[in-house]
Design goal:
Helix content is 59%, strand content 10%. A five-stranded mixed beta sheet has the order 3-2-1-4-5. Helix 9 crosses helix 12, helix 10 packs across helix 11 and helix 10 packs across helix 12. The chain is globular.
Length: 320
């Protein structure tokens, strides 16, 4: 087997520091997770000419370093931390320190070779933050409504006031998201394309725009796998397990599921597809998952071709 001596970089991100390890040289460095530290890191890595620089997604703490390195045309990849943890378990690396984490990330980059994709620009990050904030407010309101049903009289008024405040905040964030999308001709056009489909509302459209910038630029199989609606085999020897979906982007999958529930009732193409699957004996959840994948494929095609909903076109082919 031919040895791969290209330099790969693993960066463990924390609030204060970036712990960096290079393979195969085993060189390591710790810098501050701020602009001066990132500038120092950039100067070092440029001289090393790495083939891949991998960071875990850590709730936004990684974006400063990723943005600065990516702006210098370095090959930066931000990956799902679960992938790295699963890789570490498979390799028997169970201990955890910042330096060890950087080593695990570098070994993950070396072995798995994750695909490099363009990072979100500043506007996309802002929209993502607004959509994430809306989701947080909705979750808080759901929790308060659950408490309300069994709350004693002494605390019920407080809960009711908080629910009313959360409703106003959600409305305010919705207005901010709408204004933000309308301010960009490109996003406005994409939003109009998405909402032209029965079942896709403003919340679903804004979530897709924020969390799935690859829509329209990838083949249908890859976009389905990216979202997590692509079924994978579970076979071993003579055992033939049921295919199931897993992984992917949960936020997209969640809004896509709700959109599909609506589309299965009111969108003629998705409705016909769902009815054909259920008549063929497919369980309800299996049929809905297939409809999610079908709806995503249609949205991908529409964005790619800059085309609004065309009932006749998508009625011709209802295969998954």
């Amino acid at each position: 087997m031919k040895n791969d001596d290209s330099v790969v970089v693993g960066i463990d991100v924390s609030k204060e520091f970036l712990d960096v390890l290079l393979l195969p040289s085993e060189s390591k460095k710790r810098v501050a997770n701020d602009e001066s530290g990132c500038a120092e890191l950039l100067a070092w890595l440029v001289s090393e000419t790495p083939s891949k620089i991998v960071l875990e997604s850590t709730g936004g703490l990684e974006m400063l370093a990723a943005g600065i390195l990516s702006a210098a045309s370095l090959p930066v990849v931000v990956v799902n931390p679960r992938q790295v943890r699963d890789f570490a378990k498979a390799c028997g690396m169970l201990a955890k320190t910042d330096t060890l984490d950087a080593r695990i990330i570098a070994r993950f980059a070396q072995a798995v070779k994750p695909e490099i994709r363009p990072l979100k620009d500043e506007l996309s990050q802002t929209l993502s933050a607004l959509v994430a904030r809306r989701r947080q407010l909705v979750d808080m309101m759901a929790a308060e409504k659950n408490r309300q049903s069994s709350a004693p009289r002494a605390t019920r008024k407080s809960i009711e006031l908080h629910i009313a405040w959360l409703e106003k905040q959600i409305g305010s964030v919705d207005d901010d998201i709408s204004t933000f999308i309308q301010s960009s001709p490109v996003w406005k056009a994409k939003g109009e394309i998405l909402t032209s489909v029965k079942g896709i509302g403003d919340v679903t459209a804004s979530t897709i725009l924020a969390a799935l910038p690859e829509l329209g630029s990838l083949p249908r199989q890859k976009i389905a796998a990216l979202v997590g609606v692509c079924p994978f085999n579970r076979d071993s020897g003579k055992f033939k397990g049921k295919r199931s979906i897993w992984g992917g982007r949960a936020a997209i999958r969640s809004v896509l599921y709700m959109a599909t529930l609506s589309a299965a009732r009111f969108n003629p193409v998705i409705k016909a597809f769902y009815e054909r699957l259920t008549k063929a004996g497919k369980p309800h959840k299996v049929a809905l998952t297939a409809c999610m994948r079908r709806l995503l494929t249609i949205l991908n095609s529409m964005i790619k071709n800059n085309q609004k909903w065309d009932h006749g076109k998508f009625q011709l082919n209802t295969a998954t």
